[in-house]
Amino acid sequence: MGVTRRQRAYWRKNLIVTASLLAVWFVVTFVVSFFARELSFSFFGWPFSFWMGAQGALLVYGAIIWFYARYMDKLDAQYAMQEDEEA
Length: 87
Description:
2 strands, two-stranded antiparallel ribbon, 2 helices, 70% helix
């Protein structure tokens, strides 16, 4: 059984969104901490690097999870790839 064009298109879109979200994760996790000393402006009354490490990163991680779940639900519906819920 071969892979159809439809399945390839679905997988390509899945990989693009996954790579994009991983890039956002990388920037939030590593780039912000790497440049922490240069990011010394005040944000909500705290130094930005401290705020990002304490709360901002967690908010971004939650947003990444929410976006991925929402996007994949829509993509699954668009390509008729939903899982059966009979279990």
